[in-house]
Predict the 3D structure of the following.
Amino acid sequence: MTKFWNLQNDAEIPEDGVLDIDGEIVAEKGWFTSDDACIAKDFRKALKGVKNVTVHINSPGGDVIAGAEIYSALREHSLNGEGSVTVIITGIAASAASIIAMAGDRILMHPVAYMMIHNPWTIAVGDAKELRKAAKTLDVIGEGLITTYQQRTGKDRDELKKMLENETWMSAVTCIEEGFADEIYGAEAGAAASASRPTLMSMKSHGLQEIAARIRDEDPDEKDPDEEEDPKDPEKEEPDEDPEEPEKDPEKEDPEEDPEKEEEARKRAMIARRASIAAAAWEKVETRIQ
């Protein structure tokens, strides 16, 4: 029996497993079947005794009916409450393999992974009647593919039909945008790492003055406390109050408490506190980025 899967049991989580689809998808073993082929009936057997399963896919596709059987086995596993199904596309999920991918409760793709969908095709021999029969069969299978993609993506059937007719190739990012996948594998961890390191290096290279400057960008009116005000040019000083200007009516003057000034004072106090927190944080992490 061809062993195409890699079932891994963890001592702490004995019911969790990993199955690898890394090759052609076939219904059964034949004379010319490669050793790494994924055999549908054996795949279903491999699911028995496994609860939460992760399926790694790197396959160019194969027999569409065999792909449908594996898809159905995975959906039954999830919908019947036997366990969750996570699909991770590591290289490519093309043709029938893309159908299997749609069975995941979560579908993740590596940044360099791809997916391809197209209309089913076959090799037919016979008279016109047999060829027309083959064409009708392909139309029926195509309708099933559209239904499967529609359940996952929510797209209109006509739009999916055009995508199949055009043999559509999609990158990981496109798959997420189009609804064929949920997320990039490792994207959250990668984003956190890429965000934290430049921030620390910026603190190392430029010090707290740059941090304070970035904080002040949020409030353009905030001034650096170490920055001295430019001396006024006597020639540009405001002239004294015009003696002819009529005196202000005390009853019409603004009230002593100005809400706008109070809000400005609050914002300045908040910015000063944030700068203080940044300074304290720098003292704690400075030794980590030497």
About this structure: The radius of gyration is 33 Å. Confidence is low (pLDDT under 50) at residues 1-14, 192-197, 199-206, 284-290. Helices lie at 40-47, 64-79, 96-101, 128-153, 157-165, 172-178, 187-217, 259-285. Residues 24 and 37 are 5 Å apart (CA to CA).
